[in-house]
């Protein structure tokens, strides 16, 4: 507990919020103050003892406003939470106070042609199940698809399955509108539309509480899941690049894993031969015939295939890609950690080949192809054998010196984990809507350094 909250009478706060669901049980408080920051050996000691004083679960916007008013009146830090599936401490309360758990605000307001309006607590998989009945689905989802919420994904995520077609969440057009509750002296509700949504998009809830979102949708295809194996890594990487560049083949996921990463995938140990490199893929069923020709061109072998009907049941390849790749590796060897990188445009993949040979098994290459600024590029979520923080920083610097952009997953500071620049628009919006600095304090460098 910090000095900020030591003098607060929490019994009095509970009385103020008596009509809302309030959690004070210490075990629950501890659980709801966590995310998956333990992926990082750097973040673990910094965040493991951070706990809220209360958790409040509102069921509508009016209750959010009630909590906002109480927090402003008593100057209580407020941290917004979805399902807590982030990896960087986005929803960990650094200064105690109240956690606002929005998981019960889970209404789908409407689904129209190519567009939806939802509350922030709607789970991604639950939404898609309903939207697909009308022929639509979310444009992109994280590997935590089954449990993550839409509001949490917008606030703390960046991209995922589907980014090969639609880029990142912050790309113009991927978020149409949001409703935001402020923490001004008299909290109010604002609606942001168009480019104004970037004021709160991927801001960790540091400058507004999102209570509703309008999000564009993608056509829902019958998606098949496949795993293709290769004898050498560069064949798998070049296959992934060729598939991403095959405009006529409709796909949603191109994940390339260098050996020994596939050996960490318990569900696929009987499927992927030892020592093979693999591609985890989601392909539209009407595109499977030309896809097979591409596999043959690169001497790959399909070792696993699920139809679109089968893919909705049991094991799904989604949960072995993006950040889940690291999750499964760490379940076998907890000393492993990871990095996040974006390689520059490199048609011959020479830089990827260099890194593969330079680092060997110390930095195991895991590529996720995505679209950015009109180009298809390989991002990487490398699985790293952690030894020391100094060595990890050396690895980061080596990548950056080669022109590889590192999105550092070993910091909870908003700007340091991303583009490493101050977002003046988000800072100015925070000054307007959170003048006392109560929202998720300690996470926005721009605010701390002003």
TrEMBL record:
Annotated GO MF terms: D-lactate dehydrogenase (cytochrome) activity; D-lactate dehydrogenase (NAD+) activity; FAD binding
UniProt xrefs under SUPFAM superfamilies: FAD-binding/transporter-associated domain-like (SSF56176)
Gene3D superfamilies membership: 3.30.465.10
Annotated GO biological process: lactate catabolic process
Top-level taxon in the UniProt lineage: Bacteria
PROSITE patterns, per database record: FAD_PCMH
Residue stretches making up the FAD-binding PCMH-type domain: 48-220
Transmembrane residue ranges: none
Stretches assigned to coiled coil: none
PANTHER family: D-2-HYDROXYGLUTARATE DEHYDROGENASE (PTHR11748:SF119), D-LACTATE DEHYDROGENASE (PTHR11748)
Protein name, entry field: FAD binding domain protein
Species, as recorded: Lyngbya aestuarii BL J
């Amino acid at each position: 507990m910090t000095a900020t909250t030591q003098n607060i009478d929490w019994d009095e706060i509970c009385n103020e919020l008596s009509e809302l669901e309030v959690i004070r049980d210490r075990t629950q408080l501890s659980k709801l103050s966590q995310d998956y920051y333990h992926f990082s050996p750097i973040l673990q000691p910094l965040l493991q003892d951070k706990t809220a004083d209360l958790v409040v679960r509102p069921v509508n916007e009016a209750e959010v406003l009630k909590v906002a008013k109480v927090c402003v009146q008593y100057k209580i830090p407020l941290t917004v939470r979805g399902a807590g599936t982030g990896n960087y401490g986005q929803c960990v309360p650094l200064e105690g106070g109240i956690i606002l758990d929005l998981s019960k605000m889970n209404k789908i307001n409407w689904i129209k042609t190519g567009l939806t309006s939802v509350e922030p607590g709607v789970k991604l998989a639950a939404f898609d199940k309903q939207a697909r009945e009308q022929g639509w689905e979310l444009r992109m989802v994280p590997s935590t698809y089954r449990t993550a919420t839409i509001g949490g994904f917008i606030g703390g995520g960046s991209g995922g399955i589907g980014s090969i077609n639609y880029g990142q969440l912050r790309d113009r057009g991927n978020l149409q509108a949001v409703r935001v509750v402020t923490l001004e002296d008299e909290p109010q509700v604002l609606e942001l539309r168009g480019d104004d949504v970037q004021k709160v998009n991927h801001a960790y809830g540091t400058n507004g509480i999102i209570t509703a979102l309008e999000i564009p949708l993608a056509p829902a295809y019958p998606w098949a899941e496949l795993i293709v194996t290769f004898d050498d890594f560069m064949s798998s990487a070049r296959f992934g690049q060729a598939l991403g560049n095959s405009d006529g083949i409709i796909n949603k996921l191109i994940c390339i894993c260098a050996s020994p990463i596939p050996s960490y995938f318990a569900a696929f140990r009987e499927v992927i031969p030892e020592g093979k490199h693999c591609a985890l893929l989601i392909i539209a069923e009407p595109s499977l015939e030309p896809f097979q020709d591409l596999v043959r061109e690169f001497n790959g072998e399909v070792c696993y295939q699920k139809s679109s009907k089968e893919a909705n049941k049991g094991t799904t390849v989604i949960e072995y890609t993006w950040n889940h790749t690291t999750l499964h590796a760490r379940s076998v060897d907890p000393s492993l950690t990871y990095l996040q990188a974006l390689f520059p445009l490199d048609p011959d993949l020479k830089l990827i080949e260099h890194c593969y040979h330079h680092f060997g098994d110390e930095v195991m290459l895991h590529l996720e192809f995505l679209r950015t600024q009109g180009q298809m590029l390989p991002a990487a979520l490398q699985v790293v054998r952690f030894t020391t923080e100094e060595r990890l920083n050396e690895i980061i610097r080596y990548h950056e010196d080669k022109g590889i952009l590192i999105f550092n997953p070993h910091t909870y500071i908003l700007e340091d984990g991303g583009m490493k620049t101050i977002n003046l628009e988000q800072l100015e919006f925070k000054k307007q809507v959170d003048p006392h600095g109560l929202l998720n304090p300690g996470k926005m460098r721009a605010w701390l350094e002003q």
